[in-house]
Amino acid sequence: MLHIKSFTFNPFQENTYLLNDENGEAALFDPGCFEPHEKKELLDYVTEQNLRVTQLFNTHCHIDHVLGNAWAVRTFGVGLQIHPEELPVLKSVDVYAPNYGFVGYESSEPDSFLEEGKSIFIGNEELKTIFVPGHAPGHVVFYHEPTGQCIAGDTLFRGSIGRTDLPGGNHELLLEKIQSELFSLPDQTVIFPGHGPETTIAFEKANNPFVGKNAKL
C-alpha cells in the first residue's frame, strides 16, 4: 500500500510530497523546504513515522520545487533524479535565486536521469514515469496505478493548469500533453498537484476551463 504525505513550503506555497510503502521505505518529491522550520517539519515526520528516505525526485526544476534538494541529499544520503531536459532549468536557479530572496540557496547536481515510460519503485510499489512537458521542458509526473494516484507537479491543478510563460514553457504543448497523457488515466485518478488542493481527472475533464469539456482548445 502506498501512503502519500503532503507538506506546503516556501512563499510559493509549493506542495512537497513524501511517499512510502508499508515497510517504511520512502521517496521525496519536489522538496520545497528552505527555512529551518520547514526542514524540521519534514524531518520530524520522517523520524516519527520511522521512515527510510531512499530516493529523491523532481517533477521539474523551477526554484520552488528544488529549494530543499541539497539539504535532502545531505540529510538522507540520497541521489537526485530528474529528467535530462531539466538540467539547464536546475542550473539556472543558482543565477536567479537571490532575486527571489533565497539568499544562501544551495545548488545540487542530479545523480541520475529519469526516462519517460520507465517505472520507479518505492519498495515494491511501482510508479510509472509519464512525460508531460509544457510548463517546463522536461516535466514528468508519477502515476501509481494500484491506488489511482498521480504526483503531477505543475501540469494540472484544480480548475487550472501550469503557467507556460516561463523560459522553456509551451502552452499548446501542455494542453496537448494533458489531454493525451493525463486525461488517458482513469477518471477516478487523484491528482496531487504542485500547488493547491487535490483534484481528480473526472473533475478536470468536466470543469477545467483550459482543458475540460467546455474549453476552447
From TrEMBL:
Q: Which UniProt keywords apply?
A: Hydrolase, Metal-binding, Zinc
Residue ranges annotated for the Metallo-beta-lactamase domain, each copy included: 13-195
Pfam families the record matches: Lactamase_B
Residue ranges of coiled coil: none
Q: Which Gene3D superfamilies match?
A: Ribonuclease Z/Hydroxyacylglutathione hydrolase-like (3.60.15.10)
Q: Its domain of life?
A: Bacteria
Q: Does the keyword Hydrolase apply?
A: yes
Checking InterPro entries in the record gives: MBL_Glyoxalase_II, Metallo-B-lactamas, RibonucZ/Hydroxyglut_hydro
Cofactor needs: Zn(2+)
The protein's name in its UniProt record? MBL fold metallo-hydrolase
